[in-house]
């Protein structure tokens, strides 16, 4: 999550007025940072008019939601809390609770680790994105199964890799 947060900030990804969903949020760090970044002007850009903030949906399984919600409440200023919505999402299940293709960005940090979830994760990504959606996933490639996921991802999406030392 820290690596993806740093990437979003260092690359100056403009999240203002964007619809963003985070998958498998855990503590919510990434979603919280995205909410904050979604209110900032990119470096070197002076706003000529007022722009809206990012709308961020932070998701995880039911068991993680109470902790996730408490982190969002504790770490976002009150005026930004309505911009970050915590929702339950188990990959591959009840996807019609989320509008198909409605997100500009889909984010996930360290969510590629259980091979038995790969098919459901890909199904979820396909449901949530449109042709204009950017999916940003950060993970450490450790095992053969991680490479298998990348192969499955490349079969369905255009994939570019950003490597960190």
TrEMBL record:
Q: Which Pfam families match?
A: Methyltransf_16
The record's subcellular location field reads: Cytoplasm
Range of residues in the leader sequence: none
Q: Which domain of life is it from?
A: Eukaryota
Extract the InterPro entries matched here: Methyltransf_16, SAM-dependent_MTases_sf
Q: Does the keyword Transferase apply?
A: yes
This enzyme catalyses: L-lysyl-[protein] + 3 S-adenosyl-L-methionine = N(6),N(6),N(6)-trimethyl-L-lysyl-[protein] + 3 S-adenosyl-L-homocysteine + 3 H(+)
The UniProt entry's GO biological process terms, in alphabetical order, are: methylation
Report one GO cellular component.
cytosol
List the keywords (alphabetical): Cytoplasm, Methyltransferase, S-adenosyl-L-methionine, Transferase
- Principal location: cytoplasm
Q: Please give the Gene Ontology molecular function terms for this protein.
A: methyltransferase activity
Q: Which PANTHER family match?
A: HEPATOCELLULAR CARCINOMA-ASSOCIATED ANTIGEN (PTHR14614), PROTEIN N-LYSINE METHYLTRANSFERASE METTL21A (PTHR14614:SF14)
Family membership noted in the UniProt record: Belongs to the methyltransferase superfamily. METTL21 family.
Mind telling me what this protein is named? Protein N-lysine methyltransferase METTL21A
Record the organism.
Horornis vulcanius
């Amino acid at each position: 999550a820290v690596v993806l947060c740093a990437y979003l900030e260092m690359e100056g990804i403009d999240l203002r007025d964007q619809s963003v969903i985070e998958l498998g949020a855990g503590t919510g760090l990434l979603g919280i940072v995205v909410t904050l970044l979604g209110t900032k002007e990119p470096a070197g850009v002076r706003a000529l008019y007022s722009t809206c903030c990012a709308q961020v949906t932070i998701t995880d399984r039911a068991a993680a939601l109470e902790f996730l919600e408490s982190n969002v409440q504790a770490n976002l200023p009150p005026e930004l809390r309505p911009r970050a919505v915590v929702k339950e999402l188990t990959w591959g299940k009840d996807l019609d609770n989320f509008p198909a293709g409605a997100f500009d960005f889909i984010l996930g940090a360290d969510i590629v680790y259980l091979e038995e979830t790969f098919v459901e994760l890909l199904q979820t990504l396909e449901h949530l994105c449109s042709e204009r959606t950017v999916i940003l996933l950060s993970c450490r490639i450790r095992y053969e199964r991680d490479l298998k996921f990348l192969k499955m991802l490349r079969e369905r999406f255009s994939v570019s890799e950003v490597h960190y030392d």
